[in-house]
Amino acid sequence: MALLKSWDVMLGTLHLLLLLKDPPSKPNNLSCIMNLTEESLTCMWDPGPETYIETNVTLKRCRTRDRDGAVLDKKADCAPRKDQNHCTIPRKHLNLYQKEDIWVTAQNALGKTQSDKLCLAPMDAVKLDAPTIHTITSSPLDAGCLSVECKKSIEALWMNQLYDMRYKSEEDAKWSMISSNHTPDAGNHSVQITDCGFLAATVYHFQVRRIRQIGVGHWSDWSLVYSFLTPNRAPVGKLDVWWKLDHTAPDEKTNVQLMWKPMRKKDTNGEILGYLVFLFSDEEEDEVMVLCNTTKLVCAAPMPRGATKVYIKAYNTAGESPATEVVPFDIQGLPLSSIRAFPKDDHSLCVEWEAPKGSVIRYVLEWYRVSEQAGYSSSWKTEVGTVTSSLLQENIEPYQLYNISLYPIYEDAVGQPQHTEAYTKQKAPSISPKLHLKSIDRSQAEIEWTTIPTEERHGFITNYTIFWKDSRECLSHAVVKASSRNFLLKNLEASSIYKVHLMSSTAGGSTNSTILTIHTTIMTVMEIFILASVLFFVLALILCCVLIICFKKHHRMKKHLWPSVPDPANSSLGEWMPTKLQEGNIQFPITPEPNPIITSKITILEKEMAKNPAPIRKGDTGVGGLKIFPKSSFQLNDDNRFDSVTHGQLPTYVNTSSTVQYAKVIVDPYQGQRIPVPLYQRSDSTQPLLCDMSPSPKPYENLWFHGGSPYFQEDSVFQECEVSLMDFPLLQGLKIQGSEAFNNSHNFKTLKHNRN
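Structure tokens predicted for Granulocyte colony-stimulating factor receptor isoform X2 (756 residues):
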């Protein structure tokens, strides 16, 4: 470690010896400044390269003769402090108007050097203090002229001085200089600097500096900034106007839309408060008809019939501008022969055209951003009739499409416009159109797509490239024009899967779409149509056969599908009630017995008839096996009971095949209908037997599907019970001829039947 430190010390000493082989560097750039406020002379110099050893620097002065250079008077030296490159000589050691030689010496152990001598009188090197701007006023005769008044300092009040002034507005980047050749008299306390050409209603910043005289002394520092707002004046100049006419008004008036550019800053002379659009009446020339009084740069109003001129004025607080005359001509002149546009940079477009044959006063260029969205207004500008090119810079952005129209303005008409479109810069589209399958069959498929929205196109579409790939990763492609919207893929394999995507290209790049997967069919469209037609014909034939069979066998099918359900309430038995019973007020029991006896069959027989039943004639057997006794009838005995009438006494009333047999409904369940069995049976009951019986089924109700307890058979054993005939309204309808007791059946009480 000690060895390394010794080596560093040796290298440092060697380097120092190399630097110290020459004496100190020569001081240069010696200059002096006389400060009247401090009454001292300060001299400054450049010492040169560092010597790394102690060096003594001294500022020397002496007064010499003009011719032979002999030293007349040696002045006191001035030694600066260490590491300082300037030295100040106080007033008591100075002769202000006597010239002196001043130089700087540098001395060290290796030698001595000195700077060049500077010969001057202290007052020749004077630098005055910065002046102060007192006031700024505008001229009453010309508001564009300003007078700047500066105060002189007390120490320089007896001295003649020259002044410089500079100014700039808030919009300016550089200062404008005004040099004053006027030398104010000594003893004046102020100086005025006057200049013209200032704009009205504009904020200006002013600064002033001074010097003893040109070529003698130094310029003072600039004064502090003084800001001043110039007064308003009436606007000057005329407006740049463009118009559009609409002749579709219903009252034969012409709608005119006037557009104008804002005035230049130097012509406004203050803040513009509004614009006045008017015309003179045809009846009285002095009568003014105001169309618009607006703060906007557009006016749309109907022009009276016969009016040909419109006038526009701008006004502010100080007055109005001269009227701009507008003659809105129709578009009926000659068009331009050609026009083209190309980008100059990302935010400007250059438009060039060929001048038409006629004499053109001026050209109007109108452009707007092409977009599907609303809200982008058009911009316009005018060019004189002698030019054939223009630069568009207003509202221009890269990667956006602009439509440009150029109108030539003749002396008595407006020419037909020429149109073109341009981009300032292009890049790849943001999206590519989504593919849709239009048609497909066994060997080919047709795809289609829509256009890309203008905002996402970012350039002119040069072409579309379609790529498709099969399941074996075999890739094919085809290039189509930018105007194409569909493409037919040919020579495809049947029943295969293909992946298709579209690439959209511009001059700035390309973008791929999403992938569309398609599956080719096994058969062509015609084959599918023929097969479908054959199947349809076969199905139609089978359907026709089924309908014919159903039509011919409709009765049988009706019984199987929709069996008839008899409805006792709608039977003809209800019409058999005797007249007296119909007229009588039969009271039926309202509240049945809690546990009624359900009877499925009632048979009224005499003992002799039960033992020797009468023979049944052919055709007297009811539906379901109900036995009917044609030769028996019923009559009341003395105890108001039914007794059987012997064969041949009274005719019986039996339902025919066309009527519903009530006995069938009462005796047997329909189609195996389950009738619930009572929990117990009670004999000699005085309660109604049928009061709790289920009502007749609806015509559409099939009781086959109703479950329940086992039902009674025809040979069920019935207990002997006693019921009231009043509980059987349908039995009351049985008309028993020849029996007065039955005809007065409202007087009997009960009917007694035996167990079978």
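The chain has nine helices and 44 strands.
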